[in-house]
Design a protein that fits this description.
The protein is built from nine helices and two strands. With about 300 residues, it is an all-alpha fold.
């Protein structure tokens, strides 16, 4: 099972050894066995095919109808463009409904984006096993943008300049992770994935406990962002956990890159590039929100 639910599809799984990976429609040729006569006309046709293949320009996703890394990158950029546009809408919307007494931005866009994004994410994940629906993925990006924009202005009101800091830090983590993956120095492994799953379960339990304590009044409202007053060796507990979660998110990004690469090797249909972009977006947004929270904890202390 894929760590990121977006990639829980056979197209992104490693295929059994020995499965044919040939291009559909391409002639299946091989070397003649010793003593086997070779028809000259047939051999000339084979040679002409390969000469034409080398002379022709490299076929992309549009020509082959198959998933490629380049096409997935274009689709991912398109999804993030939608997210950025609606993030601006969420920012402005929250600011326009700010409380006249406290000056804090409204949480209505936050709620709309969170609920809408959650429902659409489930729809994308459960329907993608039968058919990839780009419209659902674009709708998810739009609602996720509302949520991100509303959360960002909330933190920006509390800590001016924090959004720029979190954005630069997120880009740095993504860039370094991508560079390490492209160089082959970092790869997802079964052992590391098991450790990741254990840590993820622990983090989910911690988050659930955090919410319960906040609702029951044991912790203040600021606990919603993990700003615990508990400290370990003088360091806020939320900050320590936040750093570990950023490492988890970075490893999740490595897994996403690996799944996309596997989809390309499996010659998945071109529309699966949208699913790859969706998976990357889920991880990057998670990474940004966690970095935003970490900086908020550090600046509040």
């Amino acid at each position: 099972m894929a760590a990121n639910p977006a990639f829980n599809n056979p197209a992104f799984r490693e295929q059994p050894a020995g499965r044919a990976q040939g291009i559909p429609g391409a002639p299946q040729t091989g070397y003649a066995q010793p003593g086997q006569p070779v028809d000259a006309q047939q051999q000339a046709a084979v040679n002409a095919h390969f000469e034409g293949a080398y002379a022709a320009p490299e076929a992309g996703a549009l020509q082959t109808g198959r998933m490629t890394v380049e096409d997935t990158v274009y689709k991912t950029v398109a999804l993030f463009a939608v997210l950025l546009v609606t993030a601006v809408v969420g920012w402005v919307w929250s600011a326009s409904m700010a409380s006249p007494t406290t000056g804090m931005p409204s949480l209505i866009p936050w709620t709309v984006g969170l609920l809408g994004g959650f429902i659409l994410a489930l729809a994308v994940i459960f329907t993608s096993r039968r058919k990839v629906r780009p419209a659902l993925i674009f709708a998810y990006a739009a609602f996720e943008g509302l949520f991100v924009g509303s959360v960002s202005i909330y933190f920006e009101t509390l800590f001016p300049g924090i959004v720029l800091q979190a954005t630069l830090a997120t880009l740095a983590v993504v860039g370094v992770t991508l560079a390490l993956f492209a160089s082959g120095k970092v790869r997802a492994s079964k052992r590391a994935t098991k450790i990741w799953m254990i840590a993820m379960i622990g983090y989910l339990v911690f988050s659930l406990l955090n919410v319960v304590l906040m609702i029951t009044g044991v912790l203040p409202q600021s606990a919603m962002f993990g700003m615990w007053s508990v400290k370990v060796f003088g360091i806020p507990l939320g900050l320590i956990i936040g750093v570990l979660v950023v490492i988890m998110a970075a490893y999740s990004l490595v897994q996403d890159f690996d799944f996309i690469q596997q989809g390309v090797r499996n010659r998945a249909p071109r529309e699966f590039g949208w699913l790859g972009g969706f998976g990357i977006m889920v991880t990057v947004v998670w990474l940004y929100l966690e970095i935003l929270r970490i900086i908020g904890i550090a600046r509040s202390n």
